[in-house]
Amino acid sequence: MNTYIYPLLGGVLIGFAVSLMLYFNGRIAGVSGIINGSLQLRKNDFLWRISFIAGLFVAGLILQFFWPESLSSNLIRSDAVIIIAGLLVGFGTVMGGGCTSGHGICGISRLSFRSIVATLIFMLMGIISATFFRLYFAGVL
User: Are 99 and 30 in contact (CB under 8 A)?
Assistant: First the structure.
């Protein structure tokens, strides 16, 4: 039963949170755009971005404290590979004009053609990349 309830509850919470963000702040909750914007230090635009990012970390800490098994992972990759992968994803979100939270959650729900196409490309490239690396670099990286 938990196999379906937890993901459904998570999806509802994410949908509710992005709706609140749009309603109260008039902004799309695209995490990469929020982080990228926080690096530019514009007046009257910095505090809400830092608060949002801090909220992500605080939520993770709360989850770690009350439900640590939910954050367990069986990753067997080196720290260097994970850092490089994260930087490549960050670079890709800048190139793609957003990330899966902005395009996939907010954009698709607004029926944005650009977001639908971007999300389809994100998913396709993710599937191709994961398949390629699993077939050709299994256990190496």
Answer: yes
Q: Residue 96: what pLDDT?
A: 75
Contact 34, 99 (CB under 8 A): no
CB 119 within 8 A of CB 108: yes
Which stretches of the chain are DSSP H helices? 2-25, 31-38, 47-66, 79-95, 108-109, 113-137
pLDDT at site 32: 82
- Length of the chain (residues): 141
pLDDT value for 139: 60
Residues in the chain with pLDDT values less than 50: none
Rounded Cα–Cα distance for residues 100 and 119 (Å):
6
DSSP 8-state class, residue 132:
H
Contact indicator for 103, 110 with CB cutoff of 8 Å? no
